[in-house]
Design brief:
Blueprint (H helix, E strand, L loop, with lengths): L2 H33 L3 E5 L6 E2 L6 E3 L6 E2 L4 E6 L3 E2 L4 E3 L4 E12 L6 E9 L2 E10 L4 E12 L4 E6 L5 E2 L6 E9 L3
Antiparallel strand pairs: 1-5, 1-14, 2-3, 3-13, 4-12, 6-7, 7-12, 8-11, 8-14, 9-10, 9-12
Protein name: C1q domain-containing protein
Subcellular location: Secreted
GO biological process, one term: maintenance of synapse structure
């Protein structure tokens, strides 16, 4: 066998090996990308309220301490990062995530609309919405935040002490999803 055919044979073997290695790497990336499908959507439920004595209000709260809000009605939980009984999302992989929440409360004619809900990351306040007035009997607010998360970081919503969410609990929504993962 001459030198040229030997070089061509070795070159072909090298290229075949590289193609096989690249094909294998692509398969691994496809599997990893599937693992990064992380999203959830959950709402509160009507059975979470109690009647406040001396009023016609049916509310979640008020409590004498800040309380994590559970969102037990889960309609999406890709990746199973959201715990509905605790209301806590745990990041499955490091990356950039987007979270949104809508709060709704209705206290009826002449009532005092008084709520504050904050998004907590690892026990620290990130963003919040609040209402404190007697001018309208119902109101809603939405907040959206994009943040970096590490694997194991936790995000949840918290109702502040002395505040309440009243009627139509199903209008209170908590969602989140990964925007893009960091490569490990």
């Amino acid at each position: 066998m001459g030198v040229l055919p030997l070089v061509l044979l070795l070159g072909s073997l090298f290229l075949c090996g590289r193609v096989a290695a690249l094909s294998s790497a692509i398969d691994v990336l496809k599997q990893d990308a599937h693992g990064f499908k992380v999203s959830f959507k959950a709402t509160m439920t009507p059975n979470m309220v109690i009647e406040i004595p001396g009023t016609t209000e049916r509310c979640f709260g008020p409590f004498n301490t800040n309380v994590p809000i559970p969102f037990p009605n889960v309609t999406l939980n890709s990746g199973n990062g959201y715990n509905p009984s605790m209301g806590v999302f745990t990041a499955l992989c490091p990356g950039v995530y987007m979270f949104s929440f809508t709060t709704y409360s209705s206290v009826g004619e002449g009532g005092r609309l008084y709520h504050k809900v904050q998004l907590m990351k690892n026990g620290r306040m990130g963003v919040s919405v609040w209402e404190n007035n007697r001018e309208d009997a119902e109101d809603s607010a939405t907040q959206v935040v994009v943040m970096e998360m590490q694997r194991g970081d936790q995000v949840y919503l918290e109702l502040l002490s002395g505040r309440k969410l009243c009627t139509n609990m199903e209008y209170n929504i908590f969602t989140g999803h990964i925007v893009y993962p960091y490569t490990v």
